[in-house]
Structure formats: structure tokens, C-alpha cells
Amino acid sequence: MDFLNALVALSNFVLIPAVAYGSQLALGALGVTLIYGILRFSNFAHGDTMAFGTMLVVMITWLFQSWGISFGPLPTALLALPFGILGCMALVIGTDRVVYRFYREQKAKPVILVIVSMGVMFIMNGLVRFIIGPNDQRFADGERFIISVREFKQMTGLSEGLAIRTTQGITVVTAIIVVALLFWFLNKTRTGKSMRAYSDNEDLALLSGINPERVVLYTWLIVAALATVAGTLYGLDKTFKPFVFFQLLLPIFAAAIVGGLGSPLGAIAGGFVIAFSEVTITYAWKKVLKYLLPENLEPSSLVQLLSTDYKFAVSFAILVVVLLFKPTGLFKGKAV
After folding, report:
1. I want to staple 302 with a disulfide (CB 3.0 to 4.6 A). Which of 21, 63, 270, 284 is the partner?
2. Cα dist from 143 to 167, 169, 172, 210, whole Å
3. What residues pair up with 114 in beta bridges, in sequence order?
4. Whole-number pLDDT of residue 139
5. Do residues 237 and 19 lie in contact, with contact meaning Cβ atoms separated by under 8 Å?
6. Where are the beta strands (DSSP E) in the chain?
């Protein structure tokens, strides 16, 4: 019985949150790796692109709520999500036309585009905070739990309860659907195959008659969709605060690099590696060990390696180790 209680506690505070967080990071890292693999630069504005798309979803959700429109037990934000994606697409395409296209035509080095993306990042960050404000904005509604602690205890008779939030379930299901659609698009459609060919060998792709501007356009459209979905899922699961998405840039880039920049499969794997590392290292293991160890060996402290305030330090440490010893990542993407 104690083992089952320990397993439930581990699932409640480590496994389920890490799977949901990993799904969010994976979607964010997919956007970063697509930009790096196809457009060949590290987009530091990706976190604030997520913030902008999520901001649109939040504002449209509020509008729907004011009109009395809801999605039953599911969050109304899911109804607003397509509109947020369209708005984010318009933003990134406009940014590409106004900013990035000039540097592509000049054949600028990737480091120049990285610096340019940092400028875009600051502008987007300021724009989002100017429109919606710098504070936490909650927009989740509908049923809060798929299963609550009380219901789980009544069903199982265990002393430890398990809670699965609706937003966690939606995150995992949505991530699976989005990833499946993305891989289908890249592997089965003509445009997706063109994007892969352009990523593998730009010169050969151009000689084959592939339109580079079409590839760039579809890349930005996909990245905008991924960024908005990832940001909305994170905002529903936690909260929406513009500066948090700027901070998320570190674990997202860490996930992309750990998996292998330019590798979509690596981005997904890297997202879960980073998520499980952060959650595991910052979790206080006292409750789990209390069930597993004899009474005379029960820990008196929290048994926490790092405070949750330092969870991004875990991403940074993993990033440094990977860059030093395996810069191509787990799935042998492009070297950083």
C-alpha cells in the first residue's frame, strides 16, 4: 500500500506535471528548430512570438466570455485559439517582410540575423506588455479537474490522492495532435517535402525549382501556429504573464539543442528531457521517501536538490554540458 501511495505521489507531483510541461516545451522547441533548420538562424524572438499569440487568445477569450460564449467543460480559449493563430501568423509574416527579408536578400551571416531577432524580441516584448499589461492574466475556465484528489481517494481507498487538471489533459492531447499533423505535413505533402529538401541542401533545392519564398512563408506560418498553441497551453496550465515567455526562451532553446537543432524529433525528445530534469531536481522528495523508507530512516528535511526558483538553472546546466560534449544533440542535428 505504501508503494502505491508513493507511486501516486510521484505521479501527482513529478510525472504528470513533467509530461504536460514537456509537451509545452516540445511545441516551443519545434518552432525554434524549424527556423534554425530551414531559415538557418536562431530566432531569439520566439518566446515573445509565443507571448503575442497567447495575448491574442487571452483577449479573444475575454471577448467570448463577455458575450456569454463558452466551450462547456473545456476552456473557452480553445475556441479563441484559431483566431490567435491567424493574428500571430499576420505578425510574423509582416515581421519577415519588413525585417528579415532584407537581410536574406543581402545574404547576411546567421549571426546578423540572430542580432536582428533580438531587436524584434525587445519590440514584441514591449508591444505585448503595452497592450495587455505586465501582470498575471488568468483566462482558464470550464471544469478544473479531470479527476480530483477526493474522487481518486474514494475510488482507490489510498491515503494519497491524485489530481489531473483539465489543462494538463488538454496539453498532452493537443500536443499529440499537433505533432502528428506536423509530421504528416512534412513527410506527405509536396510543400513539406520542399521544406525538408531546402533544409538539407539549399543550393540543390533551388536548382530543383523549389521556390525559396514559398518555403519561407510556410515556415513562418507553421512556426506562428506552434508558438501560439504552445503559449496558450502554457498559459492555461500556469498563467499568462508576458515576461514569463521571455524566460521560457532558455528551456525552449535548451530543448532544441539537447535534441539536436534542425531535428523535429530531437526537439520533442529534448523538451521532455528538460522538463523531467527541471521537475525532478526541484521536487521535494520527502513525501515519496516517507512511504518507501522505514520509519527510522524517514528524512527530516524536504530532500530538495534545488529550489523551484532555480529551475531554469537546470536547463542552463544541461545546455552547457550538451554544448561542450555533444553539440549536435541526441538526434545529431546541426552543430551549434
Report:
1. 284
2. 9, 12, 17, 48
3. none
4. 92
5. no
6. 145-147, 164-165
